[in-house]
Amino acid sequence: MSVKSCCIYSTGVISILTLIAGIVLVLSQVFQNILNAKIKKEIVLRNGTHAFDVWENPPPPVYMQFYFFNVTNPAEVLRGERPAVLEVGPYTYREFRPMERVNFLENGTKVAAVNTKTYVFQSDMSKGPESDLIRTVNIPAMVGYNTNTLP
Fold first, then answer.
1. What parts of the sequence cross the membrane (predicted)?
2. Would you list the domain boundaries of the chain?
3. Which SS3 state, helix, strand or coil, does residue 39 take?
């Protein structure tokens, strides 16, 4: 194999690799543009899109759990003793937050809605009924009471 034929062969291989790389780059840009257009079409909040449906009625349930410190000796606390507390809970509520009264403004470029939140008690996920009586210390009232009795 002579130097001339080796150069021609090398030039041909490099040309083919460059052509393939160019085609791949062009196709990747085309596919990227198609993908971006599809994402933009689905992500915009327009009536009838998946994004709008998920925004209007969020699918995953949201649970809120509350724990309280229950004062077990309220009469003694009123006489000035330290409160004995017991942690109670969780009291679990499911939060529903649909968008209501949805209005498209300014030629569909803005969306206005009312986000109402509703909480429903979940007795199966709670450690007590919703009607439990919980006694707790009213900190602002205690501070006010103590500032009046301080010298």
1. 7-31
2. 1-43, 50-148
3. helix
**CB-CB contact of 136 with 69 (8 Å):** yes
Rounded alpha-carbon distances, angstroms, from residue 106 to 22, 41, 118: 44, 19, 30
> How is residue 65 written in tokens?
């759990």
Strands 85-96 and 62-71, sheet pairing: antiparallel
Closest CA to 68 of 139, 135, 141: 135
What tokens does 21 get? Answer: 């790389």
pLDDT per residue as tens digits for the range 15-24: 888 888 888 8
Q: What is the structure's pLDDT at 148?
A: 61
Query: What does pTM read for this prediction?
Result: 0.58
- Helices (H) and strands (E) in the chain — how many of each? 4, 5
Q: Are strands 118-121 and 110-115 parallel, antiparallel or unpaired?
A: unpaired
